[in-house]
Amino acid sequence: MTTTPEHDARIATMTFSSVYPHYITKVEKKGRTKEELHQVIRWLTGFNESKLQDLITKKATFKVFFEEAKLNANVEKIKGVICGYRIENIETPLTKQVRYLDKLVDELAKGRKMEKILRT
Predict the structure, then answer these.
(1) Residue 100: which residues within 8 A CB-CB, separation 6 or more?
(2) pTM of the model
(3) What is the rounded average pLDDT for all residues in the chain?
């Protein structure tokens, strides 16, 4: 699936810190915790708590966020539809990576078991 260049550019320049509070709100509304959210982010990116906090403080864009990430080897197992796009068909790497994160947060908020979310 092809996303528009405008869509991809908007995602690349969006800061992780602007979206992060929404992730927290989404998972906490559904009875999950910030710690579980961080576990999911850590699994996807390899970031520890201090690195994650550093990126939030620096207001890193998603482009920088994912340039500094070491994506999990099982990332290709993340499939499905998020934000109207089928993840496995997204062609732009950065947009695909952001949608991976969105999908994991969505699964956490929906109450999916952590073992399933982390593809273990």
Answers:
(1) 44, 71, 75, 78, 87
(2) 0.93
(3) 95
